[in-house]
Design a protein that fits this description.
Length: 340
């Protein structure tokens, strides 16, 4: 038996009585098409509850008695209300509530200081990150697509973070509070209101994926000089200046989008990036003609992969187009951007 689809409400399937057990430690009913609200769960020994990919509605109040929970996954349901029921679940280490309709602040999680992974992306959460300031063991924090606001200061002590996604919120201020998060491998701040420069990322040399697009960041790319593990770098729609020289040792880059900035100089620093599959430099000040021979080197960078190169100024675009005879390459228009 690999799976079962119950296709009914919890009450119709299991009855309306509270679910009671003094010894049950794990309950998994993922993808069973369960509908309606959660039942009252009197499961004081329950450590793991997985009910993802159902059609559950209502709030989290039935979980109030599950104080031993260490892992909770209710992702991809239709749950509403706030997080208050989790305030007593202080043993939580992994909490996944993504793709619901949850509201309110993160305050009920203030005492959940054992959290290592927290994903509540795609909800309607509000307020700031202050309740997470004590979560020093967090390694993964995903709060993408909510209505959170304020600065990053509460994350200053979360130095174990390896993945951080606060994209599509209303975060403000600079990157300084995450200066000490040097274990970061993935950092996503797309579509916020962040300001300042990239200097706080200077020691984040483990970064592989970085998306700071659609912010108000300024300064140059110099702080990324030692981030040679980068595979994907997206900083489009900012106010970045200077040249591409700091990226010359990022030889593993596969996707690079720095469009809609104020970058200057030529593309020669990218000639060693032989893994590039997507390069977008649209709407910058890259007007210098690259050397013809060197340009051929860049065009030949991807030996077997389809590559889209989107150039910036007219003169640079013309030079690129002259060398794009290989059918593996296309000189495309910029991708549509989400309006801000």
């Amino acid at each position: 038996l690999e799976g079962i689809q119950l296709n009914a409400s919890w009450a119709a399937t299991f009855g309306e009585a509270a679910v009671c057990s003094e010894v049950l430690r794990e309950l998994q009913l993922d993808g069973c098409r369960l509908r309606g609200p959660l039942p009252e769960l009197r499961l004081p020994a329950l450590q793991a509850l997985y009910l993802t990919l159902n059609h559950l509605k209502g709030g989290l109040q039935p979980l109030m008695g599950c104080t031993a929970l260490r892992e909770l996954d209710l992702s991809d349901n239709q749950l509403t209300g706030g997080l208050e029921a989790l305030s007593c679940c202080t043993a939580l280490r992994q909490l996944y509530l993504t793709l619901n309709q949850l509201t309110g602040s993160l305050e009920p999680l203030k005492a959940c200081t054992a959290l290592q992974a927290l994903d509540m992306s795609h909800n309607r959460l509000t307020g700031g990150l202050e309740p997470l300031s004590g979560c020093k063991e967090l390694m993964g924090l995903d709060l993408y697509d909510n209505q959170l606001e304020g600065g990053l200061e509460p994350l200053r002590g979360c130095t174990a973070l390896q993945r951080l996604d606060l994209s599509s919120n209303q975060m403000t201020g600079g990157l300084e509070p995450i200066r000490g998060c040097t274990a970061l491998r993935e950092l996503y701040f797309f579509l916020n209101q962040l300001t300042g420069d990239l200097a706080p990322l200077r020691d984040c040399t483990a970064l592989q994926r970085l998306d700071l697009s659609h912010n108000q960041l300024s300064g140059g790319l110099g702080p990324l000089r030692e981030c040679t593990a980068l595979q994907e770098l997206y900083c489009f729609y900012n106010q970045l200046t200077g040249g591409l020289e700091p990226l010359q040792d990022c030889k593993g880059l596969q996707s690079l989008d720095l469009s809609n900035n104020n970058l200057t100089g030529g593309v020669e620093p990218l000639l060693g990036c032989k893994s590039l599959q997507t390069l977008n430099l649209l709407d910058n000040l890259l007007t210098r003609h690259p050397d013809q021979g060197r340009m051929r080197g860049l065009i030949a960078a991807a030996t077997t992969k389809t590559t889209t190169i989107v150039a910036a100024a007219t003169s640079l675009a013309g030079t690129l187009r002259a060398h794009l005879r290989d059918p593996r390459f296309t000189l495309g228009r910029a991708r549509p951007r989400e309006s801000v």
